UniProtKB/TrEMBL annotation:
NADP(+) binds at residues 40, 46. This reaction introduces a second double bond into the aromatic ring system. Its EC number is 4.2.3.5. One of its GO terms (cellular component) is cytosol. Its cofactor is FMNH2. The keyword Lyase applies. One of its GO terms (biological process) is aromatic amino acid family biosynthetic process. The keyword Amino-acid biosynthesis applies. This is Chorismate synthase. Homotetramer. One of its GO terms (molecular function) is FMN binding. It is an enzyme of class 4 (lyase). HAMAP family: Chorismate_synth (MF_00300).
Length: 397
């Protein structure tokens, strides 16, 4: 069973993760991991912190000579900002200035009450979305395995505030991906991109913040991941839970889920055809999942993010003593929607990999591919894998 634990504070020394259950002999290109980390750091609307950090992965164990060994993979990302926070983050000496004005919308008040703390700093440090850096690194390692299965991702912004990009992506294309990667807000529609940038500028000027929505599509996801047998084996249960766990996400849509009430059954079903020896679908309203199981169509997931809770505009609030005070501002992003898209993509990569390794279980890549190969022969889903995967599977025999 693939799983990981992560730890680390936003302004502590580093973030770390230990991954268990990753098969041996998977080639890991560290540059690819660092590329994912850099993608997460970009995006119009980010605050001052992203100018300080230059996230890079450090491998502590489990990878040798460019390949996984089957041992636990331990990785770290050092926080450059720690240099500026050493005194505040000292593990022995208590810092004199405690934060006692909780921000609504963040974990501040809940954390203080639940853990019986007296300094909101202790809540901020772990509740912060800084944690998404290490989650992206874990997802990026998974992507190295997913590449062998030809799984490809597109993640993009579909909405910032009231500006929506209604364009539809049905098929994977390098050209579309490149356009999105070049966009400062990860938006496909050029006109909307400019509107989003203008909106972020205006809202930043006003001392306020924005939320939005992103879409992640995974193409070539193997058929048969997940199950209808138990509620917690359903792929949609796992995906939506993982997506909701990302800081600031308030809703998750799979396929055309939010539109479903407006569509008749005869139109919503993805009609089944049989062509060239394999089953195909005429549409993808279900976003690639039927009965909790991946059906071979692209996995389409949308996430809706609330506006960033830390706002520069001053407002009346109360402190931990219950006294009326002015709000306190914590350095912050104005909009993190483009970054969310990259986080969601890598979180989805982990969930897909976990289920690939559940279904096609094996301690080495060769064992996993052999298992996959036999399933693939039986359930031809009409996807052309090229010779590579079949060859690797056969060589692994
Ligand atoms: C990539 C990313 C960056 C974020 N940056 C900030 C930020 O700078 N300031 C802030 O207050 N919240 C930021 N957030 C959102 C908070 O982390 C989030 O609102 C908080 O954890 C509470 O949300 P929850 O109730 O969903 O856990 C960010 C979220 C993500 C995904
Ligand atoms: C550090 C990251 O995001 C942070 C998420 C975050 C929050 O409250 O969630 C608050 C900000 O932290 P800081 O106070 O250090 O500026 C963001 O920069 C990151 O994405 O790597």
């Amino acid at each position: 069973m693939l799983r990981f634990l992560d730890a680390g504070e936003s302004h502590g020394k580093m973030l770390v993760a230990i991954i268990e259950g990753f098969p041996s002999n998977v080639e890991i290109n560290i540059e690819n991991i660092n590329r994912q980390l850099a993608r997460r750091q970009r995006g119009y609307g980010r605050g001052g912190r992203m100018l300080i950090e230059n996230d890079k992965i450090e491998v502590i164990s489990g990878i040798r000579g460019g390949k996984t060994t089957g041992a636990p993979i331990c990785i770290a990302i050092h926080n450059k900002d720690y240099e500026n926070w050493k005194e505040i983050m000292d593990i022995e000496k208590e810092y004199k200035e405690k934060i006692i004005v909780p921000r609504p919308g963040h974990a501040d008040l809940n954390g203080i009450l639940k853990y019986n703390l007296d300094d909101i700093r202790n809540v901020i440090e772990r509740a912060s979305a800084r944690e998404t850096a290490i989650r992206v690194a874990v997802g990026a390692i998974c992507m190295e395995l997913l590449k062998i299965f030809h799984v490809k991702f597109i993640s993009r912004t579909v909405r910032i505030g009231n500006v929506a990009d209604d364009s539809i992506i049905e098929e994977y294309s390098d050209e579309i991906l490149n356009r999105i990667e070049k966009s400062p807000v990860r938006c496909l529609d050029k006109e909307k991109e400019q509107e989003m940038i203008n909106l972020i500028e205006n809202i930043k000027e006003a001392g306020d913040t924005l939320g939005g929505a992103v879409e992640v599509i995974a193409f070539n996801v193997p058929h048969g991941l997940g199950s209808y047998s138990f509620y917690d084996r359903r792929m949609d249960y796992m995906i939506s839970g993982a997506m909701m766990s990302i800081q600031g996400v308030k809703a998750v849509e799979i396929g055309d889920g939010f539109e479903a009430p407006n569509i008749l059954g005869s139109q919503f079903n993805d009609k089944i055809t049989y062509e060239g020896g394999s089953f195909k679908r005429k549409s993808n309203h279900l976003g690639g999942i039927e009965g909790g199981i991946t059906n071979g169509m692209p996995l389409v997931v949308r996430l809706y993010m609330k506006p960033i809770p830390s706002i520069r505009q001053e407002f009346e609030t109360v402190n931990l003593l219950g006294e009326k005070v002015k709000s306190r501002y914590e350095r912050s992003d104005v909009c993190a929607v483009p970054a969310l898209a990259v986080v969601a993509e890598n979180v989805l990569a982990f969930e897909i990999t976990k289920e690939i390794l559940n279904k096609f279980s094996g301690d080495s890549l060769e064992d996993v591919l052999n298992s996959f190969y036999h399933y693939y022969l039986r359930v031809d889903r009409g996807v052309d894998y090229g010779g590579n995967i079949i060859n690797s599977a056969v060589q692994g025999k």
